[in-house]
Design brief:
It is built from 9 helices and 17 strands. It is of the alpha+beta class and 374 residues long.
Length: 374
């Protein structure tokens, strides 16, 4: 299989206009403590809360924000609920990939008539700050896409939430917005979900990577990237490929017990400052050997950043026809080897760092070996 070139995805008539990522909601075992982690280590500000104190009897949710990145951490107060069952099965993980739309009713109707499985019919929520309409459809595994229509709402987050002042001083690390969210699916399911996004949501296939692009001596994976018409939403979808040992995708599927969100890539304007601060706060990143940097000048060409600084921070570099990008990947941020984050700075590049795949995959395999899961 050949790697496809990155293609323009703008369409003349988009039946599902999407305005970007509204929020990403996690189901977690202890939302209060998770919120502290994201404030202290990642520089998110606590902006809203819902729970028993606000009239919500079955859960507690903390809304954290840094520029356009908004995370919601939700835990159940009940011993048996959808939230507790999700968390028991998957560990802490992403439940909702929520998308900002102008019309949540139309978004629901258009996708359902094209084959989407409904999760929540369009529902209006309101309070003294206005009203919103939210609908939702299922995607891979237990993951759900919410459509959020909030143009008539001025509150801190959504009705049912109250604005919160941070109890601790929080300093941003420079995260700007969600660049893309990556899903891992079972062997043989990648093309099914690519077709789902094409048929149901009107996405276009942006780029394909096969097992020759993403492989090492021991393991491999396949990946396809789909994007909506304006390019605001990009979803790479991975599946395992045959190899001598267990791939990172198989490890994820084993510990998450099914398909789900593998990693969230977040854009920054200054990756050196962002990663330097995250390291100072104790965030652990995958390690790439110093030999990786030996051919950077020949492979990537001129870059604005100081190569020694990038090498010191272990930041990866790659170039495509439109420019170059800088990226780095955390180790899993949960006790299970499942979810992790990518920090990315684009200097014109529109691709996903193909030139870094081998080095990245080998670093993940080193971590798998330490865990005894290779």
């Amino acid at each position: 299989m050949e790697t496809l070139e990155l293609t323009e995805t703008q369409t003349t008539q988009d039946f599902l206009p999407l305005n970007g990522t509204d929020h990403i909601e996690f189901y977690v075992g202890n939302a209060k403590q998770s919120a502290y982690y994201y404030q202290h280590a990642w520089g998110y500000k606590l902006v809203a809360y819902a729970g028993p104190e606000t009239g919500v009897r079955d859960r507690a949710s903390y809304v954290l924000q840094q520029n356009k990145v908004r995370l919601v951490l939700t835990t159940s107060i009940l011993p048996d609920s959808e939230i507790t069952r999700h968390q028991a099965k998957h560990g802490d993980g992403v439940k909702f990939l929520s998308i900002l739309v102008d019309d949540a009713t139309k978004s629901f109707e258009e996708t359902v008539k094209r084959g989407a499985k409904p999760y929540m019919e369009p529902t209006r929520f309101e309070d003294e700050n206005g009203w919103v309409i939210i609908s939702a459809i299922h995607t891979y595994g237990d993951t759900v896409h919410k459509f959020v229509q909030r143009n008539n709402y001025s509150g801190a987050f959504l009705p049912g939430f109250k604005a919160v002042d941070n109890a601790m001083e929080v300093k941003s690390v420079g995260l700007k917005y969600v660049d893309h969210c990556v899903g891992n699916v079972e062997l043989g399911a990648m093309n099914q979900w690519v077709k789902y996004y094409e048929d149901v949501m009107g996405f276009k296939l942006l780029i394909t990577f096969d097992d020759e692009d993403i492989s090492t001596e021991y393991s491999a994976l396949m990946s396809k990237v789909v994007s909506n018409g304006n390019g605001y939403i990009k979803f790479p979808i991975n599946e395992p490929a045959e190899g001598r040992k267990k791939s990172q995708i198989e490890e994820y599927l084993d510990f998450y017990h099914g398909a789900g969100v593998q990693h969230i890539a977040i854009e920054t304007d200054n990756i050196i400052e962002t990663v330097g601060e995250l390291r100072r706060r104790g965030i652990e990143f995958l390690y790439v050997p110093e030999t990786y940097y030996e051919d950077i000048p020949q492979r990537v060409g001129h870059i604005e950043e100081n190569l020694d600084e990038l090498k010191k921070l272990n930041i990866l570099i790659d170039r495509d026809a439109d420019g170059y990008l800088l990226q780095i990947f955390t180790k899993p941020v949960e006790d299970r080897p499942t979810l992790f984050y990518e920090i990315i700075q684009r200097r014109g590049a529109k691709s996903f760092g193909k030139g870094n795949f081998k080095a990245l995959f080998e670093s993940i395999e080193r971590e798998q070996g330490i865990r005894g899961n290779l």
